[in-house]
Amino acid sequence: MRVGVLTGGGDCPGLNAVIRAVVRKGIQQYGYEFLGFRDGWRGPLEGDARPLDVQAVRGILPRGGTILGSSRTNPFKIENGVERIRENLAKLGVDALIAIGGEDTLGVATKLHDLGVKVVGVPKTIDNDLNATDYTFGFDTAVNIATEAIDRLHTTAESHRRVQVVEVMGRHAGWIAIHAGMAGGANVILIPEEPFDLDQVCEWVESRFRSNYSPIIVIAEGAVPKEGQLVRQSQELDAFGHVRLGGIGEVLAAEIEKRTGKESRCVVLGHVQRGGTPTAFDRWLATRFGLHAIDAVHDGDWGKMVALRGTDIVRVPLAEATKELKVVPKELYEEAKTFFG
Amino acid sequence: MRVGVLTGGGDCPGLNAVIRAVVRKGIQQYGYEFLGFRDGWRGPLEGDARPLDVQAVRGILPRGGTILGSSRTNPFKIENGVERIRENLAKLGVDALIAIGGEDTLGVATKLHDLGVKVVGVPKTIDNDLNATDYTFGFDTAVNIATEAIDRLHTTAESHRRVQVVEVMGRHAGWIAIHAGMAGGANVILIPEEPFDLDQVCEWVESRFRSNYSPIIVIAEGAVPKEGQLVRQSQELDAFGHVRLGGIGEVLAAEIEKRTGKESRCVVLGHVQRGGTPTAFDRWLATRFGLHAIDAVHDGDWGKMVALRGTDIVRVPLAEATKELKVVPKELYEEAKTFFG
Amino acid sequence: MRVGVLTGGGDCPGLNAVIRAVVRKGIQQYGYEFLGFRDGWRGPLEGDARPLDVQAVRGILPRGGTILGSSRTNPFKIENGVERIRENLAKLGVDALIAIGGEDTLGVATKLHDLGVKVVGVPKTIDNDLNATDYTFGFDTAVNIATEAIDRLHTTAESHRRVQVVEVMGRHAGWIAIHAGMAGGANVILIPEEPFDLDQVCEWVESRFRSNYSPIIVIAEGAVPKEGQLVRQSQELDAFGHVRLGGIGEVLAAEIEKRTGKESRCVVLGHVQRGGTPTAFDRWLATRFGLHAIDAVHDGDWGKMVALRGTDIVRVPLAEATKELKVVPKELYEEAKTFFG
Amino acid sequence: MRVGVLTGGGDCPGLNAVIRAVVRKGIQQYGYEFLGFRDGWRGPLEGDARPLDVQAVRGILPRGGTILGSSRTNPFKIENGVERIRENLAKLGVDALIAIGGEDTLGVATKLHDLGVKVVGVPKTIDNDLNATDYTFGFDTAVNIATEAIDRLHTTAESHRRVQVVEVMGRHAGWIAIHAGMAGGANVILIPEEPFDLDQVCEWVESRFRSNYSPIIVIAEGAVPKEGQLVRQSQELDAFGHVRLGGIGEVLAAEIEKRTGKESRCVVLGHVQRGGTPTAFDRWLATRFGLHAIDAVHDGDWGKMVALRGTDIVRVPLAEATKELKVVPKELYEEAKTFFG
């Protein structure tokens, strides 16, 4: 049996741990051969692959990123994409695929499975918004990085009696924001699931100052104000004559400063959240995902995705992962609100 | 309603996060008053307590240890212990207790509940071996500290072609060993659940050297050899004329060196694993445990313990937590073995 | 003797360590009393102070920020500012001042000294650009935070074959950029001391891609292009209809992408660099600065600043610290260039 | 010109950074070729070497340990050792050597230089006790690891009202102990330079408890009691019937517990201090050492060692490095004592 492996979408700490586990167990226990496709679906599309043996996956467990490269290539948006993949798999003698990725990558995997390609999926998203699994690897690392940043920002906010806004990742779901916000002791957490009310935010800010502390606001990049709010006109120009304005975090900080008169600053954590060595949990989860994915291949359990449920790794239909977005439940957000203001 | 809070047993990152969440929600949402008892069950036994208000729990979320102190005092082993607790609770006007602790502390809580004391429990053990909850806070921190240490030891082992033994916590269960060992890429993991065979360990060591790498062995402090093994006589003396020999890790390293001729060293991570700031996950779990514990008090749901199941916090009977030890399942240990040797 | 202590300017890890050392040694060795002025020069200006005893400085050694608060208040820009300070010092019985701060704070201290106020200075700048001392505390912490971020960004850049620009602090001097850039293995480092040539930067970027690696560019916030470069017109609009454009890092990333066709991203590390717990070196340096500052007070050595020279703490005239900016020497930048491209 | 590079003695974070800098600059600027000798002086002794090009040193900057391996082989203690080295250098066409190491490795280098071998040295010792340089790389990493451990141990000590002894590296000099002890807020620091008085130590311990805090004692592995002290007889046996007793830290903890009645524990940090990724400072210092070492080769400045003086890298005669041990000066220890008790 020759198995192809690929990683698609944004990179994520733990991808290499999955690859290593797949290859180590596949070779030692099942005697398989492995091909690593380069750059997500671009690899099988263009027949770009290299052999993966035990030596190739040595030392990669603690390394962030992916040794296979990644891309957002979608074969269904390319002429004859699926046909070309079939041809390349046949040409390279690849019997089955393990696709490690998020919504897009697994969406392609689902469709390919429906077309008869033997494929097993491993869920990956830094944002933790994939359905059917308690957590995805990479998320814990992102949350720890964001929490450490919040820890650091507390002291600066206090020393200067300043509002500190921290924009974290999360375009469609507020998982990083709510986890890091609760862990970091944020005074306000704003998530895409619940449009925020600017008056309410300013009230929390002022209440925090009244208790003689400085507020930290954690906001997901996809959070939005209630309709009609924040249509202000900024005119501050930068060195090149452009209006200087960033994402929602910066807009919010500027607006709070305008409304409350309190000095406000924004830090956008950005890509730092998704790089570097994975936490112990993410290495553990990614490794177990890899071990169970190759077991699914061995069992011929095609069209399945490995998933975490409690402390168990289970298999669910690939389609389940992408059928809806996993968002922060209302009750959890209510728990977080205990500490607002 | 006046609620007493206490922390018992070995300290653990996250204790302060529980206390803070209990007090913040209890005051803001339910209008309760709080008394913090000092040093576990010694507090109610001797009536040693201090008021806990919002100010008292400010800034403690990221701090390791416990602001209430801890001890291993067991009122059931002290004359009139239970009576004295009843009297002190009455005298101090304490209506209910939240007991945060492990097997011993919750064992006492269970018995007190049977005797009519209104008590709610929060599970705590760095070792993760309490029944009825997926994880306990503090464990993730310990695993990350151990994993980081293993990461560091790899490079030394490689540079000197040396066997490196790392002894981690876990007297009765190998949770820290197996999590940190898998996350750290250990070549052998030894846990209390499965007595090890010294010949097999040495074979793994030699196989690792044959692939031109240096072995890292992670061993739980409670791991033991198969019967009849390791009855060697060491005669190495230290500066004071004493035979120099430590715990199982050191014994194992010495034995491996004797048998394989390879230089072997042992590091005992010890108390470093249980101190300091909690990881984001542990702060999150501890905070949610605290929020749900005070809800249980509010609901009058006495004799219950909060517990993690998947991503939910649930309530289980206190007695369940201590009725048996949660050990590493055989299948999980088999997964880990994929990477041995 | 009653000594006043204040911290001015931007906050910086290590400020609390200085305060602790000053107070501990001053009380134990010399029997002094201490007043902590709030928010830099605003404190003495408005007579806003609180007593500092051993208890007040307990546990602050590892904490970032400053327990005294900070501000940029300049008494020489306020009517009767100096007079009011004199009056308040007299009223509060303060015999001498220890001023901990950067260019502005020490500039005020210098002038006050010239006017007869008994003052000793402690140099503080995250940017390391104060003259007359090898290093200032806080700088090592900032460099380590930036280096860790660069470490993390490498794996993302590689996985996506992307240009990653990292904007670090340093308005007038490139110390953080060159230290973190060299430590993080950056492929290009751009500093305020040497205006950069955009063609050259793009050439380095392309050479890096030619060796099959992805470039990391570290740029100080104060770095500027050679005259006439970068006057491009961006028209990208954000959600609020504003042109979306940030600091020099973002401008550079956009320009590189335009010129080379390679996907380019920018992360602005911002305030995360100046908060949180100090590194061991910064705690050590800050502690020693504090111990030597109170010795200078004891010796009546007014108008002096403590400074690091090699491994020694020495005293230099306050005026020296601010007489010129300490910039990155040309030879050091040449050393860094070894690794460009 | 073909240059040989070797690393000897205990491993140390930063060794790879030196190798990388030497090779990168040597190839790009001077057009040299490089051979990496394996395992310190064993490499040239046995002619065991491999070519080092730019590819071979890619990605090693942040990695601890040494890609060349290390050993304590001393050619002067082996028959015809020097002759064999000469022959191998000639056979392999090696014109000059860069020896990276501590007292032993540089001692050999000094003697070889006296015999006409062209050699340049780079000082390396985790203990920071080499003469003629302000600091050596690896030391800052060790100090940070030890400081972080002390930070963590504080909370455990407080929670349990316990004496915590932390044994750190430093056989002949107390540099790590005094730096980490001061940075970590230790209450007692014991170093080899000054034999300690047990009564005094117990007095500090008790004074700390009297202020309602728990003492942390940092002790260098080479610290010794005053003559005649600590000749106690321990009889505690371990599972194998051996007297259970470790290094000086454990002995001290046992003795303090016996004398003061306070529960006392010891953690021996051990090899964790010398492994893993270097701090930013160590990467910076190691990189600059490497750049200046290859410059010395280019200048034909044989028999020299690079050294740090303030912020400058200078060259000193190799013999100076080893002519005496650099110990903690008495005044510095006095500074640290400000915080004892």
Automatic annotation (TrEMBL), chains A, B, C, D:
As cofactor, the record names: Mg(2+)
State the pathway, as annotated in the record.
Carbohydrate degradation; glycolysis; D-glyceraldehyde 3-phosphate and glycerone phosphate from D-glucose: step 3/4
Task: Tell me where in this chain the Phosphofructokinase domain is found.
Answer: 2-297
The cellular location(s) given in this protein's UniProt record come to: Cytoplasm
Residue numbers marked as site, Important for catalytic activity and substrate specificity = D104
Q: Which GO terms describe its biological process?
A: canonical glycolysis; fructose 1,6-bisphosphate metabolic process; fructose 6-phosphate metabolic process
* Annotated binding of Mg(2+), by residue: E103
Assigned keywords, A-Z: Cytoplasm, Glycolysis, Kinase, Magnesium, Metal-binding, Transferase
| Top EC class for this record | transferase
Q: Which reaction does it catalyse?
A: beta-D-fructose 6-phosphate + diphosphate = beta-D-fructose 1,6-bisphosphate + phosphate + H(+)
What does UniProt list as catalytic? Answer: D127 (proton acceptor)
Residues recorded as binding substrate, renumbered to this chain, are T125, I126, D127, R162, M169, G170, R171, E221, R265, H271, V272, Q273, R274
Instruction: State the GO CC annotations.
Output: 6-phosphofructokinase complex
Important for catalytic activity (site feature) positions: K124
Which family would the database say this protein is a member of? Answer: Belongs to the phosphofructokinase type A (PFKA) family. Mixed-substrate PFK group III subfamily.
Q: How does it assemble?
A: Homodimer or homotetramer.
Q: What is this protein called?
A: Pyrophosphate--fructose 6-phosphate 1-phosphotransferase
Organism this protein belongs to: Carbonactinospora thermoautotrophica
**Gene name of the encoded protein:** pfp
